[in-house]
Amino acid sequence: MSNAARDERLRRYTVKGLQLAAVAAAYYVSAKIGLEQQLVRGQVTPLWPPTGVAVVVLMLWGLRMWPGIALGAFLVNVMLGPSILPVLAIAVGNTLAPVCAYLLLRRVGFRTELDRLRDALALVFLGALSGMLISATLGTGVLVASGALAAHAFWPTWSVWWTGDAMGVLVIAPLLLAARTARWPRGVPVLRWVEAVALLGGTVAVGMVATHSSVDLLFLVVPFLIWAAFRFQLVGAAPCALIASVIAIDAGAAGAGPFSGRDLLAKMVILQAFNGTVSLTALLLSAAITEQSRTLREIEGACERLREALSRLAPDETLDQWPSSRPEGPDHQKGHRP
Question: What per-residue confidence (pLDDT) applies to 38?
Fold first, then answer.
């Protein structure tokens, strides 16, 4: 093997190693953030950002990134216990879940632009709700089998685990995908910036009131998500969905507002229903509006190309000068009278 070929091979291995290290670090850091709101055993949380990070990494860099995900999952869980074998099993579940979600999404032709309604539906039902069944079932089962969790706590813990992993995909993945294609706007009117600030501030304020009020006001967040989707599409809807979900999770962990006086399973049902509604509204509506706008642009482009083709065929005539195809009356049909 020549020196040039050896150097090229070494360079490829170095780049791949750095990529895997970056993936493991991103998984670890996002996991530490998610553990701030743990509800069971210090390791089960209703929002697990690493699943969203892992799914996006697989979408962008391919299946070869799974070792980085596995390493990050192991490093996170080895500090939480209970022992090395359950930790390995949990890490396997945390790796298999995003890998299976990625394979399901690739199977249906998912596009990372999230500019089609079918892509939003696929991310919800295949990437989040179906794919994350693996990690929740395997992880909770391992905790019960190892004696770290009582058997009667299986379903409440499973609900928190599944909710957290699914919400990680529904909330974090769209935000990362939107940030990947977002560009700093130039020449934007001041009123547009004021609208964006008002939207984010209003989402925070309404979210705080809705999740800390004794009256059930969670539905008040939905109009802000609709506003964000219509005016800013995914770039605006994804941050608003994240804000609303984080505020609701914080209220659920503290037992405030509509979560007050409820057991863990009831909290998870309310939280999953709210976060699911938030994510579905943000994703589906922004995708539908983006798809409609793209279709309109394609139609306008086709009309413009048709106009140019017609002008080349008859350069000395305009469309207004062309004879109408409709009959103009009896004289047109029978000819002129002498």
Answer: 66
3-class SS at 40?
Answer: strand
Q: Which residues pair with 44 in a beta bridge?
A: 40
Candidates 223, 268, 215, 260; CA nearest to 244 is: 223
Tell the residue number behind the tokens 């919400």, with chain if given. Answer: 167
Q: Is the pLDDT of residue 3 over 70?
A: yes
Q: What is the pLDDT of residues 232-255, one digit of tens each?
A: 989 999 999 999 988 988 888 788
Kindly calculate the radius of gyration of the chain based on its CA atoms and give it in whole angstroms: 27
Write out the two tokens for 197: 């600030």
pLDDT at 335: 45
Half-sphere exposure of 280 (CA within 13 A, CB side): 9
Largest CA distance in the chain: 107
Q: Rounded to an integer, what is the distance from CA 302 to the centroid of its chain?
A: 32
Q: How many other C-beta atoms can be found within 10 angstroms of the C-beta atom of residue 171?
A: 28
**Residue 44 three-state SS:** strand
Q: For residues 68 and 23, give the distance between their C-alpha atoms in angstroms, rounded to a whole number.
A: 5
pLDDT at 43 over 90: no
**The pLDDT of residue 47:** 83
CB atoms within 10 A of CB 144: 17
Concatenating the DSSP letter of every residue in 148-205 gives: SS-GGGHHHHHHHHHHHHHHIIIIIHHHHHHHHH-----S--HHHHHHHHHHHHHHHH
Q: Tell me what the mean pLDDT of segment 212-228 comes to.
A: 88
Q: Given the structure tokens 């560009």, which residue do they identify?
A: 183
Structure tokens at 228: 């964000």
Handedness of CA 123, 126, 129, 132 (dihedral sign): negative
